[in-house]
């Protein structure tokens, strides 16, 4: 594919999770792929263009399947005063079974949103073709249908930006406390149980089928200060017999 005309190649080296089977005999195995495109994509203005041209399905058989792109942009700006932390989780469980994930609750500032976003590709619009999401045994909602950015008929992507402690949905997503249809972001502060792990379950509404849920994310304002990577030397070079004084930033 191409991002702002810079070529991005997907091949076995971009696979980040295990290849899992699907019970449907007409389906190929499922796996998640990720690329860091920071160094080869130039963004000169506010527009990012993604071009995913037709692929050669059968000449390169392993490359056959469904594809949908979820782009994450981390940025800095002079007017931003607060730090934001972002966690990206990719699927490592079978997509035709109930996916059951347990996450360590991040050290977030409860005065600001803890935002959950779901990337659920290839979900149709029929009533029995969606996916239900549970968080700590509470039903977060059902997602299905066409996301405004995914042609022609199917695919759900939780789009948002998080800046200075404010979470805002994009392209029809709303930063409330539930998922609904192609709205796949939710503020989950009130659904947490003290500091217990966050339990997320996802599955096709029709329990005998499977949908693809390649990734989900958490975005939040940290409760502890975030130090610059330049604040403390990350490595020291020395020869045999030399000594070095190690140090750490206060509070870490």
Question: How would you describe the overall organization of this protein?
Answer:
25% of the residues are buried. The model has no long low-confidence stretch (mean pLDDT 82). The radius of gyration is 20 Å and the shape is globular. It starts with a strand and ends in a 32-residue tail after the last strand. Strands 4, 6, 9, 13 and 15 form a five-stranded antiparallel β-sheet that branches. A five-stranded mixed β-sheet has the order 5-14-7-8-12, with no helix packed on it. It has strands at residues 2-3, 6-7, 50-51, 85-90, 99-103, 115-120, 131-135, 138-143, 156-157, 160-163, 166-169, 179-180, 185-187, 198-204, 215-220. By secondary structure, it is mostly beta strands. The protein is built from no helices and 15 strands. A hairpin with a 2-residue loop joins β7 (131-135) and β8 (138-143).
Q: Quick check: average pLDDT?
A: 82
Care to count the β-strands?
15
Number of helices: 0
Low-confidence stretches: none
What series of H and E elements makes up the topology?
Answer: EEEEEEEEEEEEEEE
Estimated structural class: mainly beta
**CA radius of gyration:** 20 Å
Report the end-to-end length measured between terminal Cα atoms.
41 Å
Query: Helical proportion?
Result: under 10%
Q: What general outline do the C-alpha atoms trace? A: globular
Largest sheet composition: 5 strands, antiparallel
Which range does the strand content fall in?
15-25%
């Amino acid at each position: 594919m191409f991002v702002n005309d810079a070529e991005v190649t997907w091949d076995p080296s971009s696979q980040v999770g295990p290849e899992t089977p699907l019970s449907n005999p007409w389906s190929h195995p499922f796996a998640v792929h990720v690329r860091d495109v920071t160094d080869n994509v130039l963004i000169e203005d506010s527009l990012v263009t993604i071009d995913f041209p037709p692929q050669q399905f059968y000449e390169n058989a392993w490359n056959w399947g469904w594809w949908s792109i979820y782009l994450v942009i981390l940025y800095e700006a002079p007017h931003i005063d607060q730090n934001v932390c972002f966690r990206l989780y990719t699927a490592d469980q079978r997509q035709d079974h109930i996916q059951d994930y347990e996450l360590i609750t991040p050290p977030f500032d409860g005065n600001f949103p803890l935002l959950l976003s779901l990337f659920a590709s290839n979900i149709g619009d029929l009533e029995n073709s969606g996916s239900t999401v549970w968080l700590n045994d509470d039903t977060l909602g059902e997602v299905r249908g066409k996301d405004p950015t995914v042609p022609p008929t199917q695919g759900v992507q939780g789009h948002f930006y998080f800046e200075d402690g404010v979470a805002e949905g994009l392209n029809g997503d709303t930063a409330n406390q539930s998922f609904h249809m192609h709205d796949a972001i939710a503020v989950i502060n009130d659904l947490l149980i003290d500091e217990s792990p966050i339990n997320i379950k996802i599955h096709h509404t029709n329990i005998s089928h499977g949908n693809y849920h390649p990734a989900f994310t958490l975005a939040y304002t940290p409760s502890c200060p975030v130090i610059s990577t330049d604040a403390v030397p990350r490595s020291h070079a020395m020869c045999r017999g030399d000594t070095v004084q190690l140090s750490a930033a206060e509070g870490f």
